[in-house]
Amino acid sequence: MDQFTWLIPTLPLIAFLIIVGITYRFKLLSAIVATSFSLGSLFLAISILIQKIQSPKTTETFINWLTLTANQQTVLTLQMGYLMDPLAAVMCLIVTLIATLVLLYSIGYMKGDDGFSRYFAYISLFTFSMLGLVISNNYFQTFVFWELVGLCSYLLIGFWFFKPAAADASKKAFITNRWADFGFLVGIIGLFTHFGTFNFAELSTVISLHQNTLVLLILGLLVFLGPMGKSAMFPFHVWLPDAMEGPTPISALIHAATMVAAGIYLVARGYILFASVDSVMIVIAYIGGFTALFAATIALVQRDIKRILAFSTLSQLGYMMMALGVGSMTSGMFHLTTHAFFKALLFLGAGSIIHAVHDQDIFNMGGLVKKMPITVWTFVIGSLALSGIFPLAGFWSKDEILTVTLQHHFMGLFILGTLVAFLTAFYMFRLIFIALFGDNRSGHHAHESSWTMTLPLLILAILSIIAGLVNTPWFYQWTGMSFSTFLFFKEPEVPVIHWSIAVLSSLAAMSGILFAWIIYSKQQISADKLAQRFKGAHTLLLKKYYIDEIYGWLFNKGLLGLGKVFNFIDHILIDGLFDGTATLIRSSGVQLRLFQTGRLQQYALVLFIAIAAMTIWGVR
Amino acid sequence: MIGLSHYLLVAAALFCIGVYSVITKKNAIAVLMGIEFMLNAININLVAFNHFMAPSQVIGQVFAIFIIGVAAAEVSLGLAIILSLYRQRHLVAIDEMDILKW
Both A492 and A591 in a single domain? Predict the structure, then answer.
């Protein structure tokens, strides 16, 4: 099956070309093309994953795409190829599965939109780029597809480009990523100049033998800038909440399940580079942990349903990054997998609600449970999974992360993670009690969505329930496999439940739900009074710690000020030098031409005086 | 006894008169006349030096004759320019001939 790996990204590319070239005018046909080709990729990904589990070996195939020579010596070889190992197989499965479900869902969600075909073409292009990124076997190809997914993200955030907010958000996402990708590119080039190859496998061999930790430290941090941008780690997180201006299924596919996880995936893929220097790992862990807490606190006070989910995504990405940073690739990737399912579920559920209510403010919703039961109950399942309630998917992956954090003696991060678990449960159930239950506050006429929208919700809900079981002791006893089987070839790590940690994190989540219930459902404690009481903190959170304002100020004052300085240097100093020379010559010409009186006799006089002077001087 | 220095003084006086007339006269004809004065002062010099310094040779006289010839050509050219200018603009005042001026 391995030889068909290249087909996985190619099928969506073909779908993209067909939609752009042929079926652009026929809306439904475009949707069918995109969905069926994506389904084809999904089947391929499943069969390759099954094969990988049965016979775990890495397949690498590449062609030399570009060879540069100087003096008959090869100086640069750019490869294009694929590396199919269990890690890539798992990621391929996630991407194709979510993409297929989102495409199916979008048929209902985007019905009647003018850009219907364009939308499906973009998603196909995105799926192609994302899969190309996942299976790539070297940093260079990764970078190419990395930029392609960034482009697709830009196109899809700005899908409704006639809305100024969407156009601004797409620019913001692109530019923020540009900053991060610059560091990433420098890092990749640095890797090449230092080790002479872009290839992952070759690099891991070379790096493990390398001794100079300073070089590895610098390169590791530079390359890590890329994942920081894509996975929206602090301080590059600003683009992700704004990216919610795009259509909701896009938020589910790109900005929750797949593209933002590409950063996590890349850290896992190039793990040896980061793991070789302890301080890089500590930086990764603390940036992840900080982002997790930072975003979770902002999510507490937001009113827009999609923004709450966006900050929740930020927080969970921070969790994954923290897990990778403390040294456990398995738990990070495991959380990526389960998170992809339940966060896609939550976003699609949110989309279904927005589709029905035509509003994104959770305070304008309420009383949805009787009108759209499938959406509401799948949304509740997703929230329970996200909060980490036993025995749903989130419980296992979150528990795993907390366990490894403690095992690697990161006590601070462990406490932080538990706190984030509490906050996560609280803000999710705040959303649920306000938006889904309670009274109908705005007099909306919501109704359940069509089957194309509810079917993906049901499938994702089932996955959100069972996906976590893969990494449980019971599953290990039954099949002899755990999640790490899918990532490594060595003997699988035996999953162990640490009951004390499990109980602690469950308690944190439960108390979060309880608080949310008391405040927003029973209304024993008034939320408004709490906000009044802690007015400063509330405003700070509502304004997202003023990060956007700080950036705005930095750009306005800093960059524009710098621009003014450069303007002064260029226009006043440099231009002044040249203009001044020209002016000097012209004005001296103006003065000098007064000598040219045109009076013959003056000339003659000068002539005679000169001759007389020369004569006198000569005689002496 | 009249010696070389007397001739030279006459020549110098003539030359200065010529320079003065070239520099100060408004009339183009008078300027040309000043130039003739200066040329003739040179001629006197040449002839006088020839007579007192090397009487056996006649180089000075030959030079003087050449200068007289060249001066004739020069004067005819100058008069032609002045004439054509007069036909065009009806003036012979040298300080108003400024059509080539910036």
Answer: no
- Beta-carbon separation of B95 and A596 below 8 A: no
Centroid of chain to Cα A584: 57
Interface with B, mutate which of A592, A593, A595, A599 (most B CBs under 10 A): A599
Q: Which of A298, A259, A31 is nearest to A148 (CA)?
A: A259
Residues 6+ apart with CB under 8 A from A288: A233, A317, A318, A319, A320, A321, A322, A323, A324, A325
Taking only the tens of pLDDT, chain B with its 102 residues reads: 788 999 999 999 999 999 999 888 888 889 899 999 999 999 999 999 999 988 888 889 999 999 999 999 999 999 998 898 889 888 888 877 766 665
Q: Are residues A482 and A613 in the same domain?
A: no
Q: Structurally, what CATH architecture does the domain formed by B4-96 represent?
A: Orthogonal Bundle (1.10)
Dihedral pair phi/psi, residue A521, rounded to 5°: -100, -55
User: Do A279 and A207 reside in the same domain of the chain?
Assistant: yes
Total domain count for chain A? Answer: 2
Segment (H or E) for A288 = helix A278-299
Question: For residue A137, is it within any domain?
Answer: no
Question: What is the Cα–Cα distance from A310 to A460, expressed in whole angstroms?
Answer: 18
pLDDT band at A490 (very low <50, low <70, confident <90, very high): low
Q: Which residue of B23, B31, B100 is in closest CB contact with A598?
A: B100
Domain boundaries defined on chain B: 4-96
Encoded amino acid at A464, one letter: S
Q: In the block, which residue shows the tokens 């003696």?
A: A409
pTM as predicted: 0.78
Q: SS3 for B93?
A: strand
User: Is the confidence at residue A593, as pLDDT, over 90?
Assistant: no
Asked if residue A205 and residue A191 are part of one domain, the reply reads: yes
Cβ contact, residue pair A601, B31, below 8 Å: yes
Closest residue on chain A to B98 (Cα): A598
- Judge if A401 and A542 occupy the same domain: yes
What range does the domain containing A602 cover? Answer: 553-619
User: Is there a single domain that holds both residue A498 and residue A584?
Assistant: no
| Chain B touched by A599 (CB under 8 Å) | yes
